[in-house]
Amino acid sequence: MNVLSPCPPGWGMPENESLAVANEAVTSCYWPLYEVENGKYRLTYRPREKTPVVEWLRKQGRFRHLFEPQNEHLLVEIQKQVDQEWEELLELCGEK
């Protein structure tokens, strides 16, 4: 089991936003929900609309440096990587 657990002090966000930020990790497909049983992949949640990863990152102080003008290309690369991994997961789950 691999779990994402928000850490408000470490992530640089208010405690009362923990649940929303964790949910956005899922809806952005940065942290997709799936199971693997006996080598068979199964998607357990597919967002109706994907949230751009930048919206999830922006809510966390730990990623503040990514929003400096010289790092804009990094945000583009992160989104590309998340999109690519999501497409690969859909294939593994037979959802594509």
Automatic annotation (TrEMBL):
- Do you know which InterPro entries this protein is assigned to? PorB-like, THDP-binding
Keyword Glycoprotein belongs to the record:
no
Which is one GO molecular function term here?
Answer: oxidoreductase activity
Q: Which SUPFAM superfamilies match?
A: Thiamin diphosphate-binding fold (THDP-binding) (SSF52518)
| Keywords, ordered alphabetically | Oxidoreductase, Pyruvate
Is Oxidoreductase there in the keyword field?
yes
Q: This chain belongs to which protein, by name?
A: Pyruvate ferredoxin oxidoreductase beta subunit
| Species of provenance | Candidatus Hakubella thermalkaliphila
